[in-house]
Design a protein that fits this description.
alpha+beta, three-stranded antiparallel β-sheet, 16% helix, 25% strand, flat
Length: 67
């Protein structure tokens, strides 16, 4: 989620092949649904806004190890 939405309540809609997240009526994210239970997909783009504000804030973070 974008950093500006931290602490806000959003609505997630799970479809057969994708997950769509809304802030009010605005779609803020759309991702392919993961089929494997317990699997996680981390997207580096979700962290860019935070890195602009605080460079070096995530040393050793799982997201960057996967990138």
């Amino acid at each position: 989620m974008p950093v500006r939405l931290i602490g806000r309540t959003v609505r997630a809609v799970l479809h057969a092949s994708e997950l769509v997240v809304y802030d009010g009526r605005s779609e803020i994210a759309r991702h392919e649904r993961l089929i494997v239970k317990g699997k996680a997909r981390l997207d580096l783009d979700h962290y860019l806004e935070a890195l602009v504000r605080k460079p070096g804030a995530f040393p050793g973070a799982t997201t960057f190890e996967q990138a």
